[in-house]
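Question (not urgent): is this output format expected?
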Amino acid sequence: MDKQKVNKSSTKKKGTTKRKASTGSQVVKIPKISWVVKPQRMSLVEWQRALRKQIAAEEPMAVAAVDEKNLPGEYEVRNPQTKQTYKVVYRGEGSQWNYCSCLDFKTSRLCTCKHIESVKLWIAENRRWRKVYQEPPTYTSVYLSYTEGRQVKIRVGSDHREEFMQLAAQYFDAEGVMFPYAFDDYDKLMAEAVAIDSSFRFYEDAIDFILEQRERRFRSQLIKRYTDERLDQLLTVTLYPYQREGIRFAFERGRTIIADEMGLGKTIQAIGTAELLRREGMAEQVLIVCPTSLKYQWQREIERFVRNVDTLVIEGNPLKRKEQYASDVPYKIVSYNCMSNDVKMWGLATDGNTHHGRGTATEELENADFDGRP
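Got this back:
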């Protein structure tokens, strides 16, 4: 791997960003862009993209080409401050195949982020333009597009193109977007595609999205079976109508912020949703992360509202807490401070599963494994 040192040519000075030009002999001064006031000459999208370029110029990142011969256009970008490594694919300015594993790229729909901008600067400073892979690869892949809302799409490569085009017509529309009904048969699609060419790739984030949509549809159908009377049997108390609605909403969405005013029973709704997920086999354990002063209050509330359930407050020294996390108690309660320290100490585990050249499913945890994108 072609490792490079952290680029430290960026400096800040009185509203400007100084950065060495690609020639190495000229310093270019770039006007500082406001974070709170959009410049009149820019559209909202232009402003946000410019801010990411500015961050890349100010924050040194460690950029490394994965394999310029066999995997051109693929990079690792490491943030020295957070110690996190991001997966970047850069195939040229404005390419639809550009990709970064960071959350900003996946949610902003800007087709860029500070990591992609850091790669562009690294390429310019190291005179690597000829090594940028600007054409799509020969293999076929199914990926998750983030540019126009999340959509599962197919990119048909040049190898076995006619066969893959015929296969794609069964699962994707003319724009290459996967039909919603095809989500139920994604494993069949994968098997048929691999039979055509073993180099076919079905990226993990696309699989995660498909499973997420299937699960949400299942939850939506399941919650319709819960009448008011059946919901009231979840806990030891009778629920108010708005509390039942809150539990239904949270269960169907899978993740929710409950923002009712104080005293209206947010705790009951949260516990009711957790218990419903446990009852339907969609969750085995529940972890409550709360302020230290509320740990035992949460324990009392759970034991009050849920029948015959064990709870555990996670505390003590780090080794003891680690054992407590691994216990099979249904409800565990831990403070924000302990959880923060434990994550820093042990990190977050990944399952290491792969799907046709794709890395682990928990990409948001920013592990360093790299296997490329479309």
